[in-house]
C-alpha cells in the first residue's frame, strides 16, 4: 500500500539524501521562494492572490480543493512549501524560474485526479503549480476545433461544446471533474473511444512551457515533443498550458442503455459472449461493463455478481435494436431499455453520478462529484477470458472487501485498432480487446484513510487476473497511475529501474527517454514515475 511505502521511503531519504539536498531542505527557503515568486508576478496579481504559503488562510482550502483521492487527505501527507494558482502564462514561467533557482521540485495540478496524488505530493521540498483557475475554453464551430486550457475540466469542455452545437462532441472520459491537463497528457478515453479513439488522438496543437520558461507551440516544440506529450505528458517535459483539440461529429440523437444481469440471469455466459461482440460490433456502439458484487438475500449463496451493460450508441434506438438483435440477442435488449437523447444528456447519464433530470450546467461544478478512498489498477486483455476464468473472478468478488470493489471493462476495436502503437506516446492499440479498470473503495471515515485489507483485495484481484491479461510487458495505463508497478528513486538526479515505464509505454518508452534527454536533460520536471533522461546533466 502507498502509505507504508511512503513512510519507508521517507525514512530512507533521511539516511541517504545527498548533502547538497539536505542543505536545501534544512535551510528555510520558503521566504526566498515566495519573495522570488512575488517579485515576478506582482504586476498580475491585483486583488487575486496567486501565491499561497502555509501561513495564508487560502493555503489549506486550495490544497484540498482538488485533492481528489481521500487516502491522501491526512496530516502526514507531505505538503507543498508554496502553492501558485496561476492565472497567466507568466505565473507559470515565474514558478519554473523560482523553483529551479531555489531548489524546489514542481508538481503540476490540473484536475487533481491522479490515483497516486503525484500532482500534489512529493517527498522533497516542492511547489504545487495549481492550474484550476487557468480554465478558459475557446470553441470554433466553423473549424470544429477548440483551444482548452489545462485547468478546465472535461465537464466544462463538454458543457461549452453543447452550448455551441448539438452535433459536435469531444471523445474523452466519463467523469466531469477530471482535468483536461492530466487526462489528455495520459491518453483519455470515454464512450466515444471506438468511434474516435482517445482524447489525445484528437489533439492537433498544444502550448507548453519548458524548463527554460520558453513558451512553445506545435511548430516551435517540434514533432518529437508534440508526440511525447500525447500519452506521456504527465509532468515529464514541461507544463502543458493548453491543448488545441479537434471536435468530432455526433448525431442529434444518440441512444443510451443501461441494463444489468445477475449470475442467476446468465451473467457469466453474457460476459463471456460480450468479449467477442463488444470489440467487433459497429464502432458507433461502445458497450462497457460495470462489474460488482451485490447482496442477494433470498439465495444461497447470498452474494451474486451484478453486471451492468452501459452503452452509448451514435444513432437512434431502432438501428441499435437491429444491431443488437443481430449480434447480441442473448442480452435480450428491449426497446424500453433504450433511451434516445442528445449527446450532452448522454454525458450526464453515463457519468453515473448525477441525479436524474440534472441540468447540463452541473458539469461546470468542480465539486459536484464525491471524493473517495480508493486503490485502483488497470489491465489490458488480448484474448477472451474463459468461463472458468470468469467464475474464478466471481470467487474473488465473494470476499467481504469486494462489497466496495468493482471493475469496468471497456471494449477496444474500432478506431483504436486502426491507430498504430507508435502514432502518439500512448501505445495500447490493436491486439487489445478490452481495458480493465480494477478498483476498491472503503469508508475512510470508519476504517481510516488507508485500509490495508481492501488494498490487499484489489491486489489479489490483479494477481488472479495474471494468466488472462497482457504479458511481457503486463501493460498498464498511465492515466491509472499505480505505484505498485515501481517508482523512481525519490532522490533527484538518479536513474532508476523503469519497469513501470515499459508497462505504461511499451516500445514508445525509448523514444520518450530520448525526448526527455533533449528537452529536460537536467531532469527538473520529475515525479515518482517520470521519464528519466538517459544521462543526467545538472543544469
Ligand atoms: C473518478 C475518476 C474518474 C476517471 N475517469 C476516467 C475516464 O473515464 N477515462 C480515463 O481515461 N481516465 C479516467 N480517469 C483517470 C484520469 O484520466 C487521470 O487520473 C488523469 O491523469 C487526471 O487528470 P487531472 O488533470 O485531473 O489530474 P492531475 O492529478 O492534476 O494530473 C495527473 C498527472 O498529470 C500531471 N499534469 C497535470 N496537469 C499537467 C499539465 N498541465 N502539464 C503537465 N503535466 C500535468 C500531474 O502532475 C500528474 O502527474 C479517472 C480518474 C478518476 C479519479
Ligand atoms: C519558515 O519560515 C516561516 C516564517 O518565515 C515559518 O512560519 C515556518 O515555520 C518556517 N518553516 C520551516 C520548515 O522552518
Ligand atoms: C525582489 O525584488 C527586490 C526589489 O526589486 C530585490 O531587492 C530583491 O532582491 C528581489 N528578491 C528576490 C528574491 O528576487
Ligand atoms: C512590472 O511593471 C513595471 C512597470 O510597468 C516594470 O518595470 C516591471 O518590469 C514589471 N515587472 C514584471 C515582473 O513584469
Ligand atoms: C508558433 O510559434 C511560432 C513562434 O512563436 C510562431 O511564429 C507561429 O506563428 C506559431 N504557430 C502557430 C500555428 O500559432
Ligand atoms: C440462460 O442461458 C441458457 C442457455 O444459453 C438458456 O437456456 C436460458 O434460458 C438462459 N436463462 C435466462 C434466465 O436467460
Ligand atoms: C449470508 O449468509 C451468511 C452465512 O450463510 C450470513 O452470515 C449472512 O448474514 C448472510 N447475508 C445476508 C445479506 O443475508
Ligand atoms: C429485436 O428482438 C426483440 C426481442 O426478440 C423483438 O421484440 C424486436 O422486435 C426485435 N427488433 C428488431 C428491430 O429486430
Ligand atoms: C433514473 O432513470 C433511470 C432510467 O430511466 C431509472 O431506471 C431510475 O430509476 C431513475 N432513478 C431515479 C432516482 O429516478
Ligand atoms: C456543486 O456541488 C456541490 C455538491 O453537490 C454543492 O454543494 C455545491 O453547492 C455545488 N456548487 C454550485 C456552484 O452549484
Ligand atoms: C535551456 O537553456 C539552456 C541555457 O541557455 C540551453 O543550453 C538549453 O538548450 C535550453 N533548453 C531548451 C530545451 O531549450
Ligand atoms: C540509466 O543509466 C545508464 C548508464 O548511464 C544508461 O545506459 C541507461 O540508458 C539509463 N537508463 C535510462 C532508462 O535512462
From TrEMBL:
Enumerate the InterPro entries for this protein.
Answer: BBE, FAD-bd_PCMH, FAD-bd_PCMH-like_sf, FAD-bd_PCMH_sub1, FAD-bd_PCMH_sub2, Oxid_FAD_bind_N
Domain FAD-binding PCMH-type: start-end pairs: 74-250
Instruction: Give the range the annotation lists for the signal sequence.
Output: 1-23
- Please give one Pfam family short name: FAD_binding_4
> What Gene3D superfamilies has UniProt attached to this entry?
3.30.465.10, 3.40.462.20, Uridine Diphospho-n-acetylenolpyruvylglucosamine Reductase, domain 2
Q: Which UniProt keywords apply?
A: Disulfide bond, FAD, Flavoprotein, Glycoprotein, Signal
Residue ranges the record marks as coiled coil: none
Write down the required cofactor(s). FAD
Q: What Gene Ontology molecular-function terms does this entry list?
A: FAD binding; oxidoreductase activity
Top-rank lineage group of the source organism: Eukaryota
Alphabetical list of SUPFAM superfamilies matching this protein: FAD-binding/transporter-associated domain-like
Give the family this protein belongs to, as stated in its UniProt record: Belongs to the oxygen-dependent FAD-linked oxidoreductase family.
What is the name attached to this protein's record?
FAD-binding PCMH-type domain-containing protein
Q: Which organism is it from?
A: Escallonia herrerae
